[in-house]
Amino acid sequence: MSQILLTSTPHIYLAPLFVCLFVYLLRWSESPEEAPLEEESEAPRPFVFLLCAAHMSAHIPLVCHGHSRPIVSLEYSKETPDGTFLVSSSKDGKPMLRDATTGDWIGTFEGHRGACWDATLNVPATHCATASADFSAKLFNAITGDCLHTFAHKHIVKTVCFSQCGTKLITGGSEKVIRIFDLRKLELDSSSNDNSTSTQTMTQPASELVGAPSQIKTARYICNDELILSSCSDNPDLRVWDARTGIIATTLKTENAVTSIEISEDGKYITTADGKNVTLWDVGSFRPMETWKMKYNMESASVCMKEGKFVCGGEDMWVHLHDCANGGEIGEPGKGHHGPVHCVRFAPDGKSYSSGSEDGTIRIWQTPSNK
What we know:
Layout: H1 15-28, H2 45-57, E1 62-64, E2 71-76, E3 85-90, E4 96-99, E5 105-108, E6 116-121, E7 127-132, E8 136-141, E9 147-152, E10 157-162, E11 168-173, E12 177-182, H3 183-192, E13 207-210, E14 216-222, E15 227-232, E16 236-242, E17 248-257, E18 260-263, E19 269-274, E20 277-282, E21 287-293, E22 298-304, E23 309-314, E24 319-323, E25 341-346, E26 352-357, E27 362-366
Helix pairs in contact: 1-2
């Protein structure tokens, strides 16, 4: 994989320290005649300075460059012995893998000839799957970057998802069909192929789920891979499919088309964004536990149950952090993006969250501690 200069700069966290230090020294440089008499503060001035600097630095994100077009999807890996990873999808057709904590670039998955709409990692983060506007989905070795297989489609592919067991892959897109591919069959085909290094393209899915009213926006495995949850680009509601029979088991009603679906790490909760609504669903009952009404249209939302917070972003170009208990916004919104925010996600440990924007940058924000 080719090297790319990463310009995310952790040292920008030091900028507020120097600003506050300059103001602090300037204040003490005043002459005794000009300096007004003040009552002694309960906290020493250096302590106030440190508090100010810490508050300011908490709102300054790591900025990760590298993509040349808008970021449309972000997904974290599970926590692994080698760390946690962040994979990004962009209209430049070059999905990238990064260290989730530092934002450092690890590699780029090459091969697509159109916009990449989705990318995801399997549980151990050894393989990556991507969905593209070039009418294909691809399977990569996430360690070497090699393309292992290309799944040819007849139209744009918008979403991919590994099963929890890692043996199956689902795709969906403009054909209005969800396809389930058995990756174990690919291993058998590869072992019997004389030219095992070449990627295959003509692969028959194990099954197809037909009946979606419009383009498949997102599809995710739930309930131990027994069900598949999907949303459509032009229609409201969530559809729950029986992965074995291909029948729609139930439909979850929403006001608008769902633009973002997130499954919690333990698989017990679903977070969706539709219009101005952020909804937290219980997987066991498929009923909404909480719906928060925002003042702006959103494209993406993510809930961190560990921290009791949720983050969302959309057309106003800001990243908003909220308290799950009352829905109120926490502090000032995260500013800096120069275009609509298309995707937000919490890291698995909840200590940070990331945002991707029309401006082609990824920003990693520190989650403020609960006081």
